[in-house]
Specification:
Blueprint lengths: L5 E4 L3 H12 L4 E4 L15 E2 L9 H24 L10 E4 L5 H14 L6 E5 L13 E5 L3 E2 L2 H14 L3 E3 L7 E4 L3 H10 L5 E11 L8 E4 L2 E5 L5 E4 L13 H13 L8 E12 L5 E4 L7 E4 L5 H18 L15
Parallel strand pairs: 1-2, 1-9, 2-8, 4-11, 9-16
Antiparallel strand pairs: 3-7, 4-6, 5-6, 10-13, 10-14, 11-12, 12-13, 15-16
Length: 343
């Protein structure tokens, strides 16, 4: 490949999605990551692309909505270019309706009619409408049709293959060429913390498990504080912990608590066995929004960080917004996403 127009450090979901948006516009791109695609937090197993509640609307929620609505076309194009499935499907989500929660849930459903642009529904439904619903003491369920799922590690592999098919280069080491953007997650947040008087962000440990329960295209479940995500390959993921204080990156008793909570909240999981356990560090900024824009430590370079639990859902639009900035000098970054919001 001739000299790159864009160098992306980090082959997690933000880095790969930005690289993909740039390649689609004809840019020559190199992606550099010592661990390869999905080596960090983006190589996980849960993949819940869940929206924020449709109320108290703000720029972050609007950005996420746009991205979630872009996702089907985004991942469809990636699958076609790569020949690999990212495991994407907009399957919706079920949540038990708690006692006394009907009025609030109904109001949110009315809000969704406008805020979600008529393209998805949030409603209260009878649990009996669904096969294998979560237990609900009220007999009712909150059902939304915006939530989607994918398999994170496979999605990263599909993106990497799509990039290679379009002429991008993915390597474990290299030098800066062209515009440079750093999407290195927890490592970059650690460097930012060291250079600033207050904490800019923090790596948050998450643990999750993959179960041998086959529900294929069943809606996701959120119950007992746990995300339960049926995948298209006949497995079901559950997660995850949120640990700011932790000792090592292994799986431990906290994950066993999550597994127990999931089994208690969702009867079909009671006899399912654990296929795999996973732990990783997810980057969370102080503002809890993605950090996009000029890099605070590297003049002339850019940053994309802070996906935390919403990185895969935000990625399609993050890619387009950062490609606008890198290739065309167009700045469409919401103010709350700029680095100064966390500095």
């Amino acid at each position: 490949m001739a000299m790159a127009d864009v160098t992306v450090y980090g082959a997690g979901i933000f880095g790969l999605s930005i690289a993909w948006a740039c390649v689609r516009r004809g840019a020559a791109v190199q992606v550099i990551d010592p661990g390869g695609p999905g080596a960090g937090a983006s190589g996980g197993i849960v993949g819940a692309l869940a929206p924020h509640v449709p109320e108290n609307w703000n720029a972050k929620k609007a950005f996420q909505l746009d991205s979630l609505l872009m996702a089907e076309a985004f991942w469809g194009e990636v699958a076609e270019a790569s020949g690999l499935s990212p495991g994407y499907a907009r399957t919706g989500r079920l949540q038990p309706l708690e006692a006394g929660g009907a009025a609030m849930a109904t109001a949110r459903g009315i809000g969704a009619q406008t805020l979600w642009q008529g393209r998805a529904v949030w409603r209260v439904a009878d649990a009996a409408e669904f096969s294998y619903p979560p237990h609900s003491a009220t007999g009712q369920i909150i059902h939304d049709t915006l939530t989607a799922r994918l398999h994170p590690a496979r999605a990263c592999a599909a993106l990497a293959a799509a990039l290679t098919a379009k002429g991008a280069v993915i390597r474990t080491e290299g030098v800066d060429e062209g515009r440079v953007i750093r999407a290195t997650g927890a490592a970059d947040l650690t460097a930012l913390n060291a250079a600033h008087p207050r904490q800019v962000g923090t790596p948050v440990k998450g643990q999750a498990a993959l179960m041998d329960l086959a529900l294929t295209d069943h809606p996701q479940i959120f119950a007992g504080g746990v995300h339960i995500v049926p995948h298209g390959d006949g497995t079901t993921a559950i997660g995850s912990t949120t640990e700011r204080d932790f000792d090592g990156l292994g799986c431990d008793a906290l994950l066993e608590d999550v597994i127990a909570a999931a089994r208690a909240a969702y009867p079909p999981l009671q006899n399912a066995s654990v296929i795999r356990r996973w732990a990783g560090l997810r980057p969370r900024t102080r503002s809890r929004a993605p950090m996009l824009g000029a890099h605070p430590l590297h003049p002339g370079q850019f940053i994309a960080n802070g996906g935390f639990k919403i990185g895969f859902g935000m990625a399609p639009k993050v890619g387009e917004v950062m490609a606008d900035l890198l290739l065309e000098g167009l700045d469409g970054i919401p103010d709350g996403f700029r680095p100064e919001a966390s500095l």
